[in-house]
TrEMBL record:
Pfam family, one: DDE_Tnp_IS66
Transposase IS66 central domain residues: 49-213
PANTHER family, alphabetized: BLL1576 PROTEIN
Superkingdom of origin organism: Bacteria
Protein name, entry field: Transposase IS66 family
Amino acid sequence: MIGIVKRQVFDIPLPKIEVTEHQAEVKYCECCNKTITAAFPAGVLAPVQYGEVIRSWSVYYQYQHFIPEDRLQQLFYDLYGIQLATATRTGYNRIAFDTLASFEESVLSAVKTAAVKNLDETGFRVAGKTQWLHVASTKTATYYHISPKRKSLLDGLSGTVIHDHWKSYYNLGGVEHALCNQHHLRELKAITEHDKEPWAQAMTRLLRVALRCRHFNEHHAIPVARIKRLTNIYKKIIRDGLAYHETLPPLPCKGKQVDNLDGQVTTSCGVYFITNKTFYGFFMIWQFHLPIMMLSVIYE
């Protein structure tokens, strides 16, 4: 033999069920005439039951990977040959919920006191009735709460809150407000494709260019000349957008009227976007304490 050639194969062992039997001694005390049974380990509550690993995997698969209940039941049967009843899995979820109570409080506290946090809400149906899922998150923590009311917002917040311009967020006290420009880009896309307004596409390009500039200079000062040039382009787009709307007839009002910069009354999404969002929006790019990917703008 002149040598050895090695090849390694990494694999996962076939899953199998392990059974651990716990035996508790039963003894009789002649002094007190009582029968004494030794204690079982914590969590061993029934003559036959599933263990903590199965319980942990069940909760993990369902809530981390969003596997539906019927598929989760099939997964355990295919891999391990066991059938987890719905009531059993529900009990596991309740145990996890109770166990994580203190962790939930820690997450909520961290989110409330964070310098920057994101807020959002969405509706969904439960038993035929509308419920609202509220989320407050940072880069490292996410807190959810469910309420039948959309306006059920968190209190005790501080720092800067980033949101989608829903007016109820402005009722929060003790915070600065910032708008998520992912929503801005979505609205600009609708104005470009639906309303065919030329300024919106130009604003979209400018926001993306400014974002790339911020990414490129993430750890360096952005040249003042570049900021000035992009700001001048931004102001021109605003002028073009307002001039474009001066050529349009007023739209019938279907909601709260919005005055543009020249005093004209309109319900146009384009002018509303310009006067209420984009007017302040471009300067978000230089707010380096805010998350880069959020494309946010501080509102006073």
